[in-house]
Design goal:
about 325 residues; alpha/beta; Rossmann fold; 2 domains; 10-stranded mixed β-sheet; about 35% helix
Length: about 325
């Protein structure tokens, strides 16, 4: 499909009806390659377009009365050329060509100067999904999560899918794992997991992990209960949430098979183990145990750093609407003349 570059945001025409586009950041790294593959697959399942975002550094400051870079527009041209070649290569790779429906996906290139994280967050404002690699070309080798991925997960205005260069082979049948803890954010994650499983033709495994400081609503009064009593409280809370979410889905929405696991242990460790062969792990950005004011909870951060399958992070109510396909974009990506 066509791959036009985009006009600056201020110059773009009025919306023309593109809904919930998938935005993906690329920089030529292995992580961004897998991110682009995932973005194309997501767009094929959602029936939407892919906006491929490539950035380059801000021009260097003036030095001694003259700019250190005499033709900063050359950076734009080189970045655009490399991004086009990268996109063309990935689109024609065996991993992409065999994806159902991918031939009909329109891809559009957006090239901008500036920090990658900031540009991607701006482009996420009217997107249905933002896809990023766990590490970019400039990431430190020993970093557990790249700075761009972390920036996007904490600041994007839509759900963020973080992918690793070499995701594990998923189990059969495909399973989408989602962690819940009774919080409003985990409810949003559960709805997103159901929607993703429906798109993937997968089952949903709902994991409710608990420890001695269990975070479910009724556990503060249950500190003296026997272990099985606490487990029962958690299981009841999880079942109520699942029943409520499935019962509130819009008419005609798919309802994949759902199973609930109530597991003792640290939530991040339990989720990482359950997601070892999952096709996707879905998390709320902050759970009931999060510290107020933090943009990303400790469980989400640890899972993003250790889990190898794609991880979808959702935030608030707007993410819930986007996840089930009810939030429409107010902006379209349009081609330069």
């Amino acid at each position: 499909m066509d791959v036009p570059s985009c006009q600056p945001a201020a110059d773009r025409p009025a919306p023309v009806g593109v809904t919930g586009r998938v935005v993906v950041g690329v920089d030529g790294s292995p992580g961004s390659r897998e991110a682009l593959v995932q973005a194309l697959a997501q767009a094929a399942r959602r029936g939407t377009v892919v906006e491929v975002v490539a950035t380059y550094p801000l021009p260097l400051p003036w030095f001694g009365g003259a700019p250190m870079l005499s033709h900063p527009e050359a950076l734009h041209d080189v970045t655009e050329s490399r991004a086009r070649a990268f996109l063309d290569e990935v689109r024609h790779s065996p991993a992409v060509s065999r994806l159902p429906g991918v031939d009909g996906v329109t891809t559009r290139l957006y090239v901008s100067e500036g920090p990658a994280g900031a540009v991607l967050i701006e482009r996420s404002r009217h997107a249905g999904l933002l896809v990023v690699g766990s590490h970019g070309r400039r990431a430190a080798r020993d970093a557990l999560l790249g700075s761009v991925a972390l920036h996007c997960v904490t600041g994007a205005a839509c759900p963020v899918l973080v992918v690793h260069p070499e995701p594990p082979a998923p189990a059969s049948p495909s399973v989408v794992v989602v962690g819940i803890d009774g919080s409003a954010c985990s409810r949003t994650a559960l709805r997103a997991a159901v929607a993703e499983a429906d798109r993937l033709g997968a089952e949903v495994e709902v994991v409710a992990a608990f420890g001695s400081d269990g975070r479910w609503t009724d556990l503060d009064q249950a500190s003296a209960s026997a272990f099985e009593g606490i487990r029962a409280d958690v299981a009841r809370g999880a079942a109520r949430m699942v029943d409520d979410v499935l019962g509130s889905l819009p008419e005609g929405t798919g309802r994949p098979a759902v199973r609930i696991l109530t597991v003792e242990g640290a939530p991040a460790d339990v989720l990482a183990a359950r997601a070892a062969r999952a096709v996707l792990l879905v998390l709320g950005s902050r759970g009931r145990g999060g510290v107020w004011g933090l943009l990303l909870g400790s469980v989400a951060l640890r899972c993003l750093s250790t889990v190898r399958c794609p991880v979808l992070v959702v935030h608030g109510r707007r993410d819930e609407e986007i996840a089930v396909g009810r939030a429409a974009s107010s902006e379209a990506v349009t081609a330069a003349p």
